[in-house]
Amino acid sequence: MVFTPKYRRGPFTDDILKRCEAVMRDVCADFGTELREFNGEHDHVHLLVHYPPKVALSRLVGSLKGVSARRLRQEFPDHIRKYLWGEHFWSPSYFAASCGGAPLAVVKEYIANQKRPD
């Protein structure tokens, strides 16, 4: 999955990405799913999530985005306010694709290498 913040503004720092990953891992655990890989840049995040068919993807995405937005705004209010205004943190859209045919190691490597070298 790929999530972008509203207006594709770039609010993510290394600390915010680490906290976002921790929050999203907790949400996944609550759903009985597993966040296998997480990475991001200043303007988007990538997630590799293993979830059973009984989990509705739209509900999982809604919780991931909702809980992370609330927690990140609470914990980094001044920084987030510089980049995002109003009530929205995430763009309402998201990208989700199945990777059932690709070897998991290849997908994990792709996500791990998303961060551009500084």
Structural class: alpha+beta
Radius of gyration: 14 Å
Described by its quaternary structure, the protein is single chain
CATH superfamily descriptor: Transposase IS200-like
Number of helices: 4
Low-confidence stretches: none
List the secondary-structure elements in sequence, H or E: EHEEHHH
Q: How far apart lie the N and C ends?
A: 24 Å
The general outline is globular
| Biggest pleated sheet | 3 strands, antiparallel
Work out the strand percent.
5-15%
Please report the first level of CATH classification, the CATH class. Answer: Alpha Beta
Q: Main sheet: which strands, in order across?
A: 1-3-2
Mean pLDDT: 90
Q: Residue share in helices?
A: 40-55%
Please tell me the CATH architecture by its name: 2-Layer Sandwich
Estimate nothing, just give the exact number of structural domains. 1
Describe the structure.
The chain is of the alpha+beta class. The protein has one domain: Alpha-Beta Plaits (2-Layer Sandwich). Helices cover 45% and strands 14% of the residues. It has helices at 14-31, 57-75, 77-83, 104-112; strands at residues 2-3, 34-41, 44-50. The protein has a three-stranded antiparallel sheet with strand order 1-3-2, sandwiched between helices. β2 (34-41) and β3 form a beta hairpin. α2 (57-75) crosses α3 (77-83). The radius of gyration is 14 Å and the shape is globular. The chain starts with a strand and ends in a 6-residue tail after the last helix. 19% of the residues are buried. The mean pLDDT is 90. One of its GO terms (biological process) is DNA transposition. Pfam families: Y1_Tnp. Residues 2-114 form the Transposase IS200-like domain. This is Transposase. GO terms for molecular function: DNA binding; transposase activity.
